[in-house]
Amino acid sequence: MRLYLASFLAAALVWGAGCGDDGDGGDIDAPAADAQPDAPTDAGMDGPFVQPTMLSETGLYSNIGTKTIASGVVEFAPRWQLWSDAAVKRRWIYLPPGSKINSTDMDYWSFPVGTKVWKEFVRGGARIETRLLQKIGDADDVASWYMVAFQWDAGETDATAVPGGVVDDQGVNDIPDRSKCRQCHQPSRNKAIILGFQALQLDYDAPANGLDLDYLVQNDWLTVEPTASGQAAYFPLPAETGTPVIEPALGYMHGNCSGCHNGDSDVLNTVPLELRLSVTELGTWAATDTYRTAVNVAASLGSQGTHVVKGMDVAQSAIHNRMTAVGGAQMPPIAREQVDTTALAAIDAWINSLPAPN
Ligand code: HEC
Ligand code: HEC
Which residue's CA is minimally distant from atom 7 of ligand 2? Predict the structure, then answer.
């Protein structure tokens, strides 16, 4: 108990200190729930939850010295990944034995208590941080998920929890504090809280028989299983003639923007933009929320272009301008300092393939 109180106080102090400029470009208000620290909750299958102070305590490795991943922990990669200033990332998931993911809502899965998901960041060949999302309570709310990043030591022997984040770690990397995690991993933004481990993001052929949607079906991870469509994918994307330009652009925005821009997000109160793909809206690209709310739709916040996306006119497309911006109007508003030029080229190719507005 004393341990918990100490780390609570430490975290509360850093939260207070973290309000100033932290050099991560534009900022948005943290959702109100951020004011509540995580309560330690009985984690059921794994015993009472204790906030880990070292990565080696979280169960990712059976031997952190040799970097041996523990049994039951499975690596995965979402098909459309979040741009993190060119960091190389790896991810792993652990489900408690015998438990399943509640997939009743195929777009927003609900994870069993005891689920742990990690994401490792490597820059210049060196491990710099590993992030943890751990389900410690029954609900799909903020108090039910413990979120923290661990900063690796120089020799990569272990990593220490940094609830207050680290600005310019090793000169280049901003490790987000816990309130920043919640600007993206937050049920008022995204019902599932988990952003990459979802049906559409896993509905592809993972390399080397790795974890993908088919693996989850074969290994009984889901309460409701999607039925095979007879095609390569469970949820086939609409076909495109010629060189595909739509899928790379809409997929990128699904991976990078939909955590905040979707039909259930509190960001809708500011801008009516929905960039999330749904398994139920894949009949045609034109039927997606992205087309409905972005293509040739007037921008609500005028200064970054006349339209959210203006067909054949990149310069008047707010999505292009906000992906080009660094600081100020940049999107995503946090967690990047560099422009993703490859993605920008894909977005521009898509914009230039669209008809101009009438
Ligand atoms: C700018 C938004 C953003 C911020 C801030 C952010 N994340 Fe994420 N995170 C994402 C997105 C999007 C994904 C899925 C795409 C990917 O992994 O490339 C993700 C994936 C993850 C994953 C893998 C599980 C999953 O959701 O797919 C973990 C673990 C994770 N983040 C932990 C954290 C922690 C801990 C913090 C704070 C220290 C944090 N993240 C901050 C957007 C964010
Ligand atoms: C962490 C949450 C978050 C993420 C992730 C995010 N946005 Fe936003 N976005 C916002 C908020 C909040 C606003 C309104 C305030 C503002 O303009 O900064 C906004 C506004 C916008 C607007 C203005 C729309 C209009 O009608 O004027 C565009 C365009 C936009 N975002 C595009 C994107 C794109 C493209 C991505 C991904 C590359 C993205 N956003 C990722 C939170 C986010």
Answer: 332
Tell me the per-residue pLDDT of 91-121, one tens digit each, with 9 for 90 and over.
999 999 999 999 999 999 999 999 999 999 9
Cα torsion for 201, 202, 204, 209, to the nearest 10°? 150
Do 45 and 158 have their domain in common?
yes
pLDDT reading at 334 higher than 80: yes
Nearest ligand to the CA atom of 169: 1
pTM: 0.89
Domain that holds residue 263: 237-353
Last residue of some domain: 158, 184, 210? 184
pLDDT at residue number 303? 84
| Three state DSSP letters for 47-97 | CECCCCCEHHHCCCEEECCCCEECCCEEEECCCCCCCCCCCEEEEEEECCC
Instruction: Verify that 177 and 244 share a domain, yes or no.
Output: no
From the alpha carbon of 300, which atom of ligand 2 is closest?
A: 26
